[in-house]
Amino acid sequence: FSPSVLGTREHWDAAYERELQTFQDIGDTGEIWFGEESMVRIIRWLEKHKVPLDSSVLDIGTGNGVLLVELAKSGYMNLTGIDYSPSAIQLSEKIREKEGMSNIKLKVEDFLAPSAELSGFDICIDKGTFDAISLDPSDAAGKRKLYVGSLGRVLKPEGFFLITSCNWTKEELLNEFREGFDILEELPTPKFCFGGRIGNSVTALVFQRK
Q1: Which residue stretches, if any, does this entry annotate as coiled coil (predicted)?
Q2: Angle, vertex CA 99, rays to CA 62 and CA 124, nearest 5
């Protein structure tokens, strides 16, 4: 991928500072990455596989934290969101307060250098964070390796990793996560037709840690 400002912390700090101001001004929670259907897809998978409601869930790059709010509304109780942007965590804290979801834990953390307390999760979820890391102008390949290493540390053996991406195909993601993770399932995503060929604009996969 070509390097992009979308891969820089400065971009996301500025973006979430704007979204925080907008929320304070008019109560708008901001953009939902990949739309509401992406959250429904994740929650349906958890429900279908009868993932216990007390399972520990980590949202990697939580942004405005809306996914965690929806998980809490669905009955999940042990929820943590991290983001390297303090503005994103400020925004997600305000949305958490507005929704009355005091059981959601939020913290400023860089997933590429996670603190020791960030460990032992049953479920890790990523909607677009791995995509953003892949666009980092400084050593994106090295940072992708760090990401996979961090995932192996924070996710329990046999824990589930649900990733939604618009930059990577299924085959590419299988290659990126081949060390330490098995593919369980590809989740259905919207299809598009272009030039007589059918494809997916979004890839959603479920891995299990070995």
Answers
A1: none
A2: 25
At 112, phi and psi to the nearest 5? -75, -15
* Separation CA 21–CA 158 (nearest Å): 40
Q: Could you say which DSSP state residue 107 is in?
A: E
For residues 189 and 145, what is the distance between their CA atoms, to the nearest angstrom? 26
Domain architecture of the chain: domains with CATH: 5-209 (3.40.50.150)
Q: Residue 90 and residue 121: Cα distance in Å, rounded?
A: 23
Structure-block tokens of residue 5: 């400002």
Could you tell me whether strands 191-194 and 197-200 are parallel, antiparallel, or unpaired per DSSP bridges?
A: antiparallel
> What pTM, to 2 d.p., does this model score?
0.87
- Express each pLDDT in 32-91 by its tens digit: 666 788 899 999 999 999 999 999 999 999 999 999 999 999 999 999 999 999 999 999
Burial 47-84 (b: 16+ CB within 10 A, else e): eeeebeeebbbbbbbbbbbbbbbbbbeeebebbbbbbb
CA 24 to chain centre: 24
